[in-house]
Amino acid sequence: MDNLFLELKNKIEQAESIIIFSHVSPDGDTLGSNIALSLMIEKYFNKKVDSVYVGFLPSLYSYLPEYNRFKDVQTIDEKKKYDLAIAVDVASKDRLISGAFIYDNANFKINIDHHKTNNGYGDLNIIEGNAACVGVILYKIFTEWNLEIPKDVARCIYTSLLTDTGGFKYENTTPETFMLAADLVKLGVSPTYEFRSCYETKPQSMVQFQAYIVTNTCFYNNGQIAFAKITRSDMSKFNATDDFTEGIVEVLRSSKNVEIAAILKETKEGYTKVSLRSKTKDIIPIVIDFGGGGHTFAAGCTIKKPIAIAYDKLLKRVQSELGCENT
Ligand SMILES: [Mn+2]
Question: How far is the CA of 324 from the centre of ligand 1 (A)?
């Protein structure tokens, strides 16, 4: 057995108290992986697991089995010392925001991730930069442990896979992706049901909000660059929650000439949260310049500047990366 997978098993066996963290602004991978690992530990190791989110928990994923098990990290006593803390899909420790203290305070810290930019902040790091999602890594782990995967767990892993491959269409979609999808469908997952639950249950106001943002997008340099700005007042006009922006940047990238698309969102603190996507260009160097991270064609950062200033800085940086004129 892979040594890291064996060590993970030993650490779980030895632990009395376990907490699993998802990253801030959670997506289908971090939430699906969290539930999948929690359920497997509870079923086969007979231990109680605290599954936590930090910040805001989007209702979009409420179709996931056992979704109600998620606790806000703020409801957990800060002084509580867990035997084991596990972060799933958390590219860097600052993505745990207020949860980082409880994570650090644990006797042993595990980091399971697939972001190439992950610096290995755990005591045990299982990082597979080529895995399409953390769900893929978990499936390998459960298989190596020789454990049967119940349908609920298969559904969570399927959501990890579905969302992190953008519905089996991003560059991380490989033969392994489809093989895993096939295995999960054999375990009882319905692709139609999961797709509809994930992508076709938006509130009407979310559809209208997204249309408004897309309409007001600016295109630069012959349409190679698309920048959408989302202010707090746009958010309040549509009663938007944080998850309302999900998927907008992919719509911008769908324009024929667009090479790099960005959405810039004003945060409550007055900073600017950026989601960046590209078609063929490696955008990691761009987000690294702003203290961010992520994947080759999908990355992000938070620029600690007001949105108008962040917008200009990022636009200049993107233009220079593409060798475009700053017009
Ligand atoms: Mn992921």
Answer: 31
Ligand 1 centroid from CA 219, angstroms = 28
Q: Structure pTM?
A: 0.85
pLDDT in tens, 265-321: 999 999 999 999 999 999 999 999 999 998 899 999 999 999 999 999 999 999 999
User: What's the confidence (pLDDT) of residue 246?
Assistant: 87
pLDDT at 1: 66
Band the pLDDT of 327: cuts 50, 70, 90: low
Distance in Å, CA 150 to ligand 1 centroid: 22
Instruction: Tell me the pLDDT tens digit for each residue of 74-120.
Output: 999 999 999 999 999 999 999 999 999 999 999 999 999 999 999 99
Domains of the chain: residue spans and CATH: 3-199 (3.90.1640.10), 204-321 (3.10.310.30)
Between the CA of 18 and the centroid of ligand 1 the distance, in Å, is 21
**Which residue, among 115, 114, 116, 90, has the nearest Cα to 103 in the 3D structure?**
90
Give residue 20's pLDDT band: very low, low, confident or very high (50, 70, 90): very high
